[in-house]
Amino acid sequence: MLLKTLVLSVLLAGALLKVAEACKGCVELDELTFDKLIPRFPFTLVKFDVAYPYGDKHEAFSSFAQDVAEVNDLLVGLVGIKDYGDKDNAELGKLYQVTEKDFPAIKLINRLAPNKWIDYPADLPVTVDNIKSFVREHSNLYIGLAGCLEEFDRLAGRFMEALTRGEKEAQEVLQEAQVEEKKFNGEENSGKMYIAIMQRVLEKGVDFLTTERERVKSLQGKKLSDGKKQLLEHRLNILAAFKSTVSVKTEL
Hints:
The chain has helices at residues 2-21, 34-37, 56-67, 90-95, 128-137, 150-163, 167-182, 191-204, 207-220, 226-240, and strands spanning 27-28, 43-50, 74-81, 105-110, 118-119. By secondary structure, the chain is α/β, with parallel strands linked by helices. InterPro entries: ERp29 (IPR016855), ERp29_C (IPR011679), ERp29_C_sf (IPR036356), ERp29_N (IPR012883), Thioredoxin-like_sf (IPR036249).
């Protein structure tokens, strides 16, 4: 019986270690390494969680880490907190105001203001695209969402800024987008969707963006084919690119 219990314990420990190692692209941080690594990157996204995390939220965070592996200005870290034994990283959790009921707690840290972190909204589902949108919204990092094109995302931001200066400048950005789309030589691409949205905004005003988001979200609640669901998801992601660019400092 004792041998059986020992074997089960070893197997369980091995399984937990595999779970902990499953977050490719993540860096495990602790009370000794945290302050050494955070200042080396303009932004750090940290997930405070149990020592051996698992489940859908952890898998989404892991997938996000892999997707942004080539974003050099972003560190994706994990802080595993134990409530037993030596209570590893418990003090680090207290410093960042994390309690057990908050797990997983995701925070975005700007190295210029490490004590003024931004919390991932508690009511926002932890999905890959939601994490990407969160980081994009609160940093100047480009992180592409499904269905989005980097150049057109930038044009969408410029379009919204141009609108504040007048319709003429916005029209000029629209023309740039049309020229950019022609580079695809007739191949199917989501650039056409960006252009259509720009045209509708010029026709109906910026309120179109809000009503269109609501319309698309209402359609998502209906029974649809996988292809249609993906198309709606891409449209929402593209709509998210239409916001004024917020300047975020990353250097002293």
